[in-house]
Amino acid sequence: MLPAIIEKLQIQNFRNLESEIIPFGPNINCIFGENGNGKTNILEAVYFLIKRKSFRKNASFPQILGIDGENPEILFSSLFKNTADEKPITYSGKLSSDGSSWHRNGSSTNRKLDIGVLFINPFESHGFHTSASFRRSWIDDQLGQIDQDYKKSLGRYNKSLRFRNKLLSTKPPQFQKQIDAIDKELGPLSLMLTNKRLEFLEDIKPFVKKAFHELFSEEHDLTITLDTKINPQRLESYYELAEKNRPKDEVLGHTHYGIHKDDYVLLFDGLNSYDYCSLGQQKMSYLSLLFAYIELFRYKFNSFPIVLLDDVSGELDKFRWSRLVEYIKNKNFQVLITTANDNFKKQLDEIEGANKIQVTSGMIKVL
Ligand SMILES: Nc1ncnc2c1ncn2[C@@H]1O[C@H](COP(=O)(O)OP(=O)(O)OP(=O)(O)O)[C@@H](O)[C@H]1O
Ligand SMILES: [Mg+2]
Predict the structure, then answer these.
(1) Residue 259: DSSP 8-state
(2) Ligand 1 atom nearest to CA at 339
């Protein structure tokens, strides 16, 4: 993973943003603007540049293409800096309905940027607390970002699972031999992925506890655990599970057990945070998990990801937001923070040395 920050971004035809150069500072970048003016769109553009996908759902090419643009193309042009050797990295891309092409330091490339990025929207605390599939995909995305083997193996698992489900959905179910062969592949993959998930949780746990204390000075205990039916030590037990569940799978027409059904539980003083915590406490717990991930990232790569912190307002009280701002001020990572909240804006405005940007109808003004 490259230790890097983004210094400049210019985009054409991306949502409502005007094609002006947006400059970023090395640490705190505040993005102000009223609702619906383009703050989140800036974060989305940075995220898209790095990941080649959006953090928003339903964000395929037609949705992100500016509706007023004359050319049906989105152009990205950016400047990053490798913070280890101070060397600049230019990165540009062109997206159209036919696909995309990318250039790094002037040469054509298919490879994505190996720069870490983390999108944080405190409102997603609700999704995290209420939806197991949200939790799974959050962990899969973040773990996949720091562990390429995990990402590749999960891709293989999902592909085989889709094929297995397709075979199971034929009525009456046939292809027993093919399903047996798929299970032989899913077994070792399931064990490997479960072990990686458990390792990830063991790695992140101390940071979760610490982030919660540091961020919110709470004396409560916060941790995260995995809820799985897979025994990560015994391959045989996977095959037993597969055999036992085959009749039900055939009736249902899909695979109803396995690591794609695993879940994660945030424990607040040993109790499930969803059942037990207030909305503010849920938000603190969720934010602590994300900030713990930032620390874990640094521990692994000796550099921070670029942090995109969207819509900081609501539910947390003034004291807790102040703690969050203090925490961010004391860390040395690049963060883009957006807010439409006047009180929070005042607080951010006081940060000396921060880069401040105002967005009005997609137009950027550096303050
Ligand atoms: N493809 C598109 N082309 C042009 N404008 C778009 C496109 N997609 C979305 N928009 C516009 O972008 C604006 C939303 O921008 P964004 O989500 O960045 O707002 P925001 O400043 O983050 O607002 P909030 O404070 O409410 O979160 C909306 O006005 C929307 O109409
Ligand atoms: Mg927004």
Answers:
(1) G
(2) 25
Average pLDDT of 70-74? 91
Q: What is the pLDDT of residue 342?
A: 87
Q: Which amino acid is at 37?
A: N
> Which protein residues have a CB closer than 5 Å to ligand 2 (ion)?
39-40
pLDDT of residue 314 exceeding 70, the answer is: no
CA-angle at 357, arms to 351 and 360, nearest 5°: 140
Nearest CA to ligand 1 atom 5: 16
236-245, long-range: CB within 8 Å, 24+ apart, which pairs? Answer: 238/186, 238/187, 238/190, 238/191, 239/183, 239/187, 242/183, 242/186, 242/187
Residue nearest to atom 9 of ligand 1 (CA): 15
Fold observed for domain 125-274? Glutathione S-transferase Yfyf (Class Pi); Chain A, domain 2 (1.20.1050)
Of all protein residues, the one whose alpha carbon is nearest to atom 2 of ligand 1 is: 15
Both structure tokens of 228: 């799985």
348: Cα within 13 Å, side-chain hemisphere: 28
Q: Please write the tens of the pLDDT for every residue from 229-241.
A: 999 999 999 999 9
Identify the three-state secondary structure at position 39.
helix
Q: Ligand 2 mean position to 28 CA, how many Å?
A: 18
The ligand 1 site (C-beta within 6 Å) comprises 15-16, 33, 35-41, 63-67, 311, 340
The percent of the chain in helix, strand and coil, each rounded to the nearest 5, is: 45, 25, 30
Domains of the chain, by residue range, sit at: 4-116+305-366, 125-274
| 171 CB-side CA count, 13 A | 4
Angle at 359 between CA 353 and CA 361, to 5 degrees: 175
280: CA distance to ligand 1 center in Å?
Answer: 27
4-116+305-366 is classed CATH 3.40.50.300: yes
Answer yes or no: are the C-beta atoms of 288 and 212 closer than 8 Å.
yes
Report yes or no: 167 and 175 within 8 Å, Cβ to Cβ.
yes
Tell me the C-alpha distance between 3 and 9, whole Å: 18
Tens-digit pLDDT profile for residues 204-217: 999 999 999 998 87
